[in-house]
Design a protein that fits this description.
The protein is built from 10 helices and 17 strands. The strands form 4 sheets. The protein has an 8-stranded mixed sheet with strand order 3-9-2-1-12-16-17-15, sandwiched between helices. The longest helix is centred in the N-terminal third of the chain and has 27 residues. The structure holds adenosine-5'-diphosphate and magnesium ion (MG).
């Protein structure tokens, strides 16, 4: 069986999303322990992950050091965090393999994701990234970036275009056929556009759930598994009549989506990605918490979305 596991912020940084490096490693060790069971059971795996807190910190570093060394653009920061987080996942999983005497290889692929330069997001960016700035700081930053006003200050807004395809999906496919575990499409992939047949990095952020789905469909994965900090997707989440969705067809889930049960910044993209995955021939998309990964695969828990 072939699966794409999409790790959320919680798998990498713990609940408050601004963990120290030791805390990040602790969170990652916990995640490694949870997914090693799939590896022991012979699953072919691609692991994708978010990069929100890491890329936010890196952007802040660019800003703070701009008088010392030239600030790097967002697509370069995306590439840097793929290396940073890929390294952490590799090391934590390899150590778990050593403990359990598992003989599997693992590698990270720097991954580009093709987007359309005419995507409407480029004229009207919606995705807030990085830290919150004061009015005074924002005045300066606005000279270089689009910004949006939030409750507690200003944030940089970047376009979040739809992913069209994953540039490296064929090499990823070859690696998993050789039984290599691949970490890819980190942070939703590095967004690139095509001009006269050539690729160029562009300052945008592709949603990691949607990019994970693209990759999962392109490599013909059976399962797309979202590991986040809730055991289920719920109807009426956080309300008195909250109800876990244990199993649903894409028609049912689409109806719930239209009824507004899944917000755009969190559960929405996982649901949308799940629908796309199943529509494109995937067997099943599963949404659950990191701790419950194996139980969910065994059908004991989690939200299961199928045809
Ligand atoms: P990740 O980093 O894993 O992508 P997100 O924060 O983007 O995590 O999405 C998971 C969060 O979605 C949960 O922590 C929960 O607070 C929120 N959420 C919003 N709506 C729902 C819902 N209907 N069911 C479950 N969780 C929901
Ligand atoms: Mg998310």
């Amino acid at each position: 069986m072939k699966a794409v596991i999409a790790l959320g912020g919680n798998a990498l940084t713990g609940k408050d999303r601004k963990a120290s490096i030791d805390e990040q490693f602790d969170a990652m060790k916990n995640t490694a322990r949870s997914i090693v069971k799939m590896i022991q059971n012979g699953w072919e795996l691609v692991i994708t992950h978010g990069n929100g807190p890491q890329v936010g910190a890196l952007l802040l570093q660019q800003e703070a050091a701009k008088n010392v060394t030239p600030p790097m653009p967002l697509h370069i920061c995306g590439a840097l965090t793929q290396g940073q987080i890929g390294y952490m996942i590799q090391q934590c999983l390899l150590n778990e393999f050593r403990k359990k005497k598992i003989k599997r290889e693992i590698t990270t692929i720097v991954t580009q994701v093709l987007v359309n330069e005419n995507d409407k997001e480029f004229s009207k960016p919606t995705k807030p990234i990085g830290p919150v700035y004061s009015e005074k700081e924002a005045r300066e930053i606005k000279k270089r970036h689009k910004m949006g006003r939030y409750e507690n200050g200003w944030r940089i807004l970047v376009p979040s275009p739809q992913p069209i395809s994953i540039i490296e999906s064929s090499v990823i496919k070859k690696l998993i056929e050789k039984n290599v575990i691949v970490i890819a499409a980190g942070g939703g992939g590095i967004p690139v556009v095509e001009r006269n047949g050539m690729l160029y990095g562009i300052d945008a952020v592709v949603d990691k759930d949607l990019a994970s789905q693209k990759l999962a469909s392109e490599i013909n994965a059976d399962i797309l598994l979202f590991l986040t900090d809730v055991e289920y997707a719920y109807l009426n989440y956080g309300k008195e009549n909250e109800e876990a969705i244990k199993e649903a067809s894409i028609e049912e889930v689409r109806k719930y989506y239209e009824q507004g049960h899944f917000p755009a910044g969190s559960m929405g993209p996982k649901i949308k990605a799940s629908i796309n995955f199943v529509e494109n021939g995937g067997k099943e998309a599963i949404i659950t918490s990191i701790e419950k990964a194996w139980d969910a695969l065994m059908g004991k828990t989690g939200t299961h979305i199928h045809r």
